[in-house]
């Protein structure tokens, strides 16, 4: 599938900005580095993501869960309409509040 954009990220003081596509083809590098990348982060900015599939959504749920268990809740911002639809479709509104997008 050559139409997938590679996943990239930008580290800001308390925010990790994800760019590109978050799907089963692209998420492995982020998964492998998640502990380092999310250390000290409070916000995961999703506004620059193109495509997110169900695997990417599962990863977002897991990242939030891991952060909460460490006692450092992670806020997801910049949730796109397409991602909001996916969240609603999988009935995850309680886990990932879609109205948190600013």
Topology of this structure?
Elements: E1 8-11, E2 15-22, H1 28-38, E3 43-52, H2 54-69, E4 75-77, H3 81-89
Parallel strand pairs: 2-3, 3-4
Antiparallel strand pairs: 1-2
Structural description of this entry:
- The structure is a single chain.
- The chain is an alpha/beta fold and 102 residues long.
- The chain has 3 helices and 4 strands.
- It has a 4-stranded mixed beta sheet.
- Strand 1 (8-11) and strand 2 (15-22) form a beta hairpin.
- It is globular and about 30 Å long.
- The model has no long low-confidence stretch (mean pLDDT 91).
Largest sheet: 4 strands, mixed
In terms of DSSP E residues, the strand content is 15-25%
Element-by-element helix/strand order:
EEHEHEH
Q: Output mean pLDDT.
A: 91
Shape: globular
Secondary-structure class? alpha/beta
- Looking across the biggest beta sheet, what order are the strands in? 1-2-3-4
The helix content is 25-40%
Radius of gyration: 13 Å
- Low-pLDDT windows of residues: none
Number of strands: 4
Number of helices: 3
Q: Terminal Cα separation, in Å?
A: 32 Å
